[in-house]
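Exercise 7.
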Amino acid sequence: MHAKTCGNRAPGGRAGQYRTPAAGYRDYCFTWLYHLLRIALAGLFIYAGFMKLLDPKAFAQAIAQYDLVPEGLLPLVAIGLPALELLAGLGLIFEVRSSLTTVFILLLLFLAVLGYAVWENLDIDCGCFTVEDLNTQEGVKTAFRRDLWLIGVTLVLFWRRRGRDLQSLWISKLTIRLKGEAP
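Solution. The predicted structure, written as tokens, is:
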């Protein structure tokens, strides 16, 4: 027996493709995994951005340790980068277009900076969440490995998103219910 179809198209499949119940269950599981990873990544970015915005001077000092940003730009970066993290995290929660791309680019930037710190054997605070959280060279290496994992998570999210519409499923359902149509 085949999964319920609309015409000759299975939900989530291409025209002419029929999906088995096992494929439907697999899609259901992948959808839940997608949402779980998306919300977790969003929460991490919201937390990190918020914590840095609470004390931008301390974050500016953490950035200054890398000696990559000119001193005149430190205040701008110390406020702008956490604000961008916070907005990207909120965008992931609400599935705003390009928020996942923004998170991916931020992670690549963080990975490059942390890689520089590891390469130069800098014994500094990574500045990832709070000033006190990772304050040794081992902390920078740990943050580098964590960001590699987070890039893997974003790649999984990109992979899962490629077959979906850009508009999220829950927004579509909300729109239908607000219009009074049957789901």
